[in-house]
Sequence to fold (234 residues):
Amino acid sequence: MDDRSNTIAGWVLFAGIVALGGAIITGEHFRAERPEKMGYPIEGVSDQPEGGAAVAEQPIAFYLATAKPELGAQVFKRCMACHTDSKGGPAAIGPNLYGVVGAPVGHMAGFPYTADLKALGGTWDWDKLNKWLSSPKALVPGTKMSFAGLSKPEDRANVIAYLNSTSDKPLPMPAPPAASPAKAAAEAADSGAQGDKGKDQPVLNETQAVKGPGKSIAGDAAPSVSGNAAQTKK
Fold:
């Protein structure tokens, strides 16, 4: 009885080894490499922006014109691990940012700013704040701030608008930049082309107009009077 049990166990073990070996061989034979780019390409469709290049970022004034402080308050929560923004608030890892918009660079007295930041000088105007929020290390390579920056200009504009709104004396938001003269001229020419009659567009007379699809006379070819056939156009 024991020999029979051992024989059955041996065959079961052998079958398992064969099944496992077959699975391994099959897997190796039919293994496919993961494609570098998932999905299937569709002919005539591109995932690149029209024109083959990314849309150029506008000046920060363009985004500030429609910035929303309430959205900036939400984005600013990412900064609260290192900064406070309440009036008279203490410094944390970084300085308190109350009233920073329009303030001198290194505005918080007693805070140990780096020499590179002090050397930046000037004031925290719209453009400088935008560059700082985009990449602190790009603006001030020696800064101790490890924040990578906000990649979206809309987020940066909203944060700036929020910090400006919490100040005792918020600065007037900048007007959006005017279109370039070439762009303005092109838009004016396009608008004129849509509303004006073409230079060589013919004016139909009454005989030509009445032969049209509507069999009626209107516009420049219309008679100046209406009535019976005996009346003539003056």
